Amino acid sequence: MLTICKYLISRTENPKALKIISNIISNPKLDINNVKMELLKKYMDEKEFKQIFNDDQKIIPKKFESKCKKYRINYYKINQTIKKHLQKMLNNKKLSFLMKEEKPLNIILDNARIHTAKIVEEACEILSVNLVYLPPYCPFLSPIEEVWKDIKREIYNTNYKSLDELIELFELKFYEKVDNISYFENWVMKFFGVNIS
Fold this sequence. Notes:
Number of domains: 2
Distance between the termini: 31 Å
Number of strands: 2
Strand content: 5-15%
Shape: globular
Low-confidence stretches: none
Helix content: 55-70%
Mean pLDDT: 88
């Protein structure tokens, strides 16, 4: 949902809708470290919570991470909390009204569980996004599958030193590929017999 909001920033024409979406994306409640803090506050008493700060009221990273491990503040809990916050922020009648005036965005999806989640469908309805589901077990119908295949082939023999470096490399390759319209043109030609170039 957050990714869709970030994408809509680049194509939303209404300045009021753009401001609301920008405020949602930049909301501190969606920051991972803030979410970890929020979750720790739920599990810890006040005395224990104060131990993760130094005298200047700055977080002590080792203690912070240690407490996160102790209380099992994991990806699932963080993600669930972010989804709850995002859902509340998107449940905005003004935003829904403004987005209805925008040109709808059509997204083609496979039937992965995450894509069919009720929360995603509700957010897309508010944001004027149409979800078009491919039939099950038909990856050949999705143009993005060609992009993934090419990226994997290019990254496979690449040396990287850290996960961050791998992510950066992946993003670079991804944007190189998706900016290349030929994947979409080939897909339209293959399945619809229409040359759009």
